[in-house]
Design goal:
Blueprint (H helix, E strand, L loop, with lengths): L10 H6 L5 H12 L6 H4 L1 H10 L7 E5 L8 H5 L5 E5 L9 E7 L2 E4 L4 E3 H12 L12 E5 L17 E7 L2 E9 L15 E5 L6 E6 L2 E2 L18 H15 L3 E9 L3 E8 L6 H5 L3 H11 L6 H10 L3
Antiparallel strand pairs: 1-6, 2-3, 2-6, 3-4, 4-5, 7-8, 7-12, 8-9, 9-10, 10-11, 12-13
Helix pairs in contact: 7-10
């Protein structure tokens, strides 16, 4: 456990280790396998959620959407009896603009971190979402309101405040490389590696920890909880992989990232999809993605359905 790709110091050795670079990813995989016309299927969370429902993929329940400024005043009516919820930009990325409310009473709202905010602050936040403050390219956006995920107690020692998630890189319908992202104090409770979350590479066949990094530096324990990361195992692993495999069928994108959370009541749920998934997953796993994708291309069968593809991944000899 805890191999480090940075041991391969030179570009030549990185290439020999099968490390996929950004230019190669963009040209050989994203541009060739992901048609631009399909990007809205994953870039707009409202569209993604509708597709997921049609393909029977478990997602957090939609409470409502706000598309226009004159609708913002209806927020309390939309919420109804919900006392906890998440407001997010439909076209946001990297967790920007996501507001998590754990409780509200009258016009007083309590965020996930325990901060008290007013109705006017929530109103302004939604207005900012609609104006495109958090969206890709600054385009006018929609505010999506969802049920709050209650993450499984199994991970309570492995994440600081925020909800941990599993990222699966899916290549032509096959789960290829996986990791779990664990929130830290440094990341502000968000499962975002660039903001300081911990990335734990996972065995594709078992969901067991292989390797762990924080800010690209190998670690063995969570910096805030001190949990030993090698003990992390993701339950309902097959269900996680099936969500990733179905995401390909749902979107037609040949190279895609699926982000999945484990709710204590509803099990694995797809949180969002990404047509341009990052490459830090290689560092988290200590494995080069290029060789993994080449192996899938060369040795994995074509024309299987999602469940058959997952069967193959789980039973294929490494």
């Amino acid at each position: 456990m805890f191999n480090n790709l940075f041991n391969f110091a030179s570009p030549k050795k990185l290439k020999e280790a099968g490390v996929l670079g950004m230019n190669a990813r963009n040209y050989n995989f994203i541009s060739k396998l992901n048609k631009r016309s399909l990007y809205p299927l994953v870039d707009d969370k409202v569209i993604t959620k509708g597709l997921a429902d049609k393909h029977q993929i478990n997602t957090p329940k939609k409470i409502g959407i706000i598309e226009f400024q004159h609708e913002v005043k209806n927020i309390l009516q939309i919420l109804g009896d919900y006392k906890e919820f998440v407001i997010k930009p439909a076209q946001g990325s990297g967790g920007k603009g996501v507001l998590v409310i754990k409780n509200y009473d009258g016009e007083i709202f309590t965020t996930a971190s325990g901060r008290i905010i007013t109705y006017n602050e929530v109103y302004q936040h939604i207005s900012n979402i609609l104006s495109g403050l958090y969206s890709l390219g600054g385009k006018y956006d929609t505010a999506l309101i969802e049920e709050l995920v209650h993450f499984s107690d199994i991970f309570k020692d492995f994440s600081f405040q925020g909800v941990p998630d599993v990222r699966i890189i899916v290549y032509k319908g096959y789960p290829a490389l996986t990791m779990m992202r664990l929130a830290t104090k440094a990341s502000g409770g968000r499962a975002n590696l660039h903001q300081g979350a911990v990335g734990v590479g996972l065995d594709i066949q078992t969901g067991e920890a292989l390797n762990a990094v924080m800010r690209n530096v190998p670690i063995t324990h969570h910096p805030d909880t001190n949990a030993e990361l090698k003990n992390l195992v993701v339950p309902f692993w097959r269900e996680h992989l099936e969500i990733g495999a179905k995401a390909y069928d749902m979107t037609g994108l040949g190279y895609i990232g699926a982000d999945i959370v484990l709710d204590k009541e509803r099990g694995p749920m797809m949180l969002e999809l990404n047509a341009r998934p990052g490459l830090a997953i290689q560092i988290a796993n200590g494995i080069g993605l290029q060789k993994v994708l080449e192996n899938i291309e060369k040795n994995y069968p074509k024309n299987l359905n999602a469940q058959e593809r997952v069967d193959f991944v789980l039973n294929h000899k490494k």
